């Protein structure tokens, strides 16, 4: 068993935005072609504790060298008040020959980077005729910062960001981090969510909201909303926009905004296309300039596998990680010669 901690994962993925986006693109294309196995994620919730949860995302990614495994990720929003990250995770990769676990990786970095790469890939693939020069970001946490980093990697014209968080001090701290990392990026803190939604035609929602609290009314025509946190927009708003998802069966669950929209209208006809189809060069997609387009990614486990496998393959020749040769029991009879 190869164990790769946070430092090992960072060493492989830091500065590798191009490779990460390519891995996410490949995973989406394979899913669109039916080359994946993706059971529904398992949500472990706790009696009298609706805010916290742990999610299991098992998946199989079929390539020349296929990958199978699971991400086990906990979301405890109260951690931030204690100076801890909201999410913590582990990824296990299994052998496709024996089924035995082969690698254990720290998963929160992988999860954040695949989420950011997915959002950035959608922003590029769902581009408009006018280059994006600014982004509005609601939710000033780890995921929001990673998304901004990846958006800058794929959108060369991005020159401004407007941020908002219900916690004003959190937004100010986030803005200071942005100014320190990207001095040339014009960074502003908005006074309200509505002001933020109206500031640019590219909007990212990366909050910890458990129930809808926003509409798209303040968005300009032609705006693309990256609805990463899935529960921010009212179902009525979802029914009024052009909807792009990663997988309709997965995203219409667990009281997401799209799940509530499905319950409201009784069908999924409001979903226009998937990101896998958008990435198909034979089916070009151009976002509407007269309507708001919303990308709602459930966060497929295949993306985590794609990045975990990338980390494992890059880490081994670099000598990263710790080997635990006695992690698994000896074969039956081995101890007796």
From TrEMBL:
One of its GO terms (cellular component) is cytoplasm. GO terms for molecular function: oxidoreductase activity, acting on the CH-NH2 group of donors, NAD or NADP as acceptor. Pfam families: OCD_Mu_crystall. One of its GO terms (biological process) is siderophore biosynthetic process. It comes from the Bacteria. PANTHER family: KETIMINE REDUCTASE MU-CRYSTALLIN. NCBIfam families: dehyd_SbnB_fam. This is 2,3-diaminopropionate biosynthesis protein SbnB.
């Amino acid at each position: 068993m190869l164990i790769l901690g946070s430092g090992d994962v960072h060493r492989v993925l830091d500065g590798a935005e191009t490779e990460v986006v390519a891995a996410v693109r490949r995973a989406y294309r394979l899913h669109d072609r039916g080359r994946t196995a993706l059971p529904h994620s398992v949500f472990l919730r706790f009696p009298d504790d609706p805010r916290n949860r742990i999610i299991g995302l098992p998946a199989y990614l079929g390539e020349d060298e296929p990958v199978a495994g699971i991400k086990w990720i906990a979301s405890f929003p109260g951690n931030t008040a204690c100076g801890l990250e909201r999410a913590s995770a582990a990824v296990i990769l299994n052998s496709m020959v024996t089924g035995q676990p082969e690698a254990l990786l720290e998963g929160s970095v992988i999860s954040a980077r695949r989420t950011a790469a997915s959002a950035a890939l959608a922003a590029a693939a769902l581009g408009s005729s006018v280059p994006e020069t600014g982004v509005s970001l609601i939710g000033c946490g780890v995921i929001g910062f990673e998304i901004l980093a990846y958006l800058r990697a794929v959108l060369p014209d991005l020159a401004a960001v407007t941020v908002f968080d219900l916690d004003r001090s959190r937004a100010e701290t986030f803005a200071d981090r942005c100014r320190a990392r990207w001095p040339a990026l014009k960074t502003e803190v908005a006074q309200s969510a509505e002001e933020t939604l109206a500031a640019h035609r590219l909007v990212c929602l990366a909050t910890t909201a458990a129930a809808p609290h926003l509409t798209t009314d303040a968005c300009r025509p032609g705006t693309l909303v990256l609805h990463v946190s899935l529960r921010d927009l009212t179902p009525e708003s979802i029914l009024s926009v052009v909807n792009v998802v990663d997988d309709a069966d997965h995203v219409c669950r667990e009281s997401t905004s799209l799940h509530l929209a499905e319950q409201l209208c009784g069908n999924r006809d409001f979903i226009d296309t998937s990101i896998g189809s958008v990435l198909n060069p034979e089916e070009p997609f151009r976002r509407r300039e007269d309507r708001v387009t919303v990308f709602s990614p459930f966060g497929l486990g295949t993306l985590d596998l794609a990045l975990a496998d990338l980390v494992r393959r890059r880490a081994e020749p670099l000598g990263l990680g710790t080997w635990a040769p006695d992690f698994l029991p000896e074969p039956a009879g081995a101890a007796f010669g």
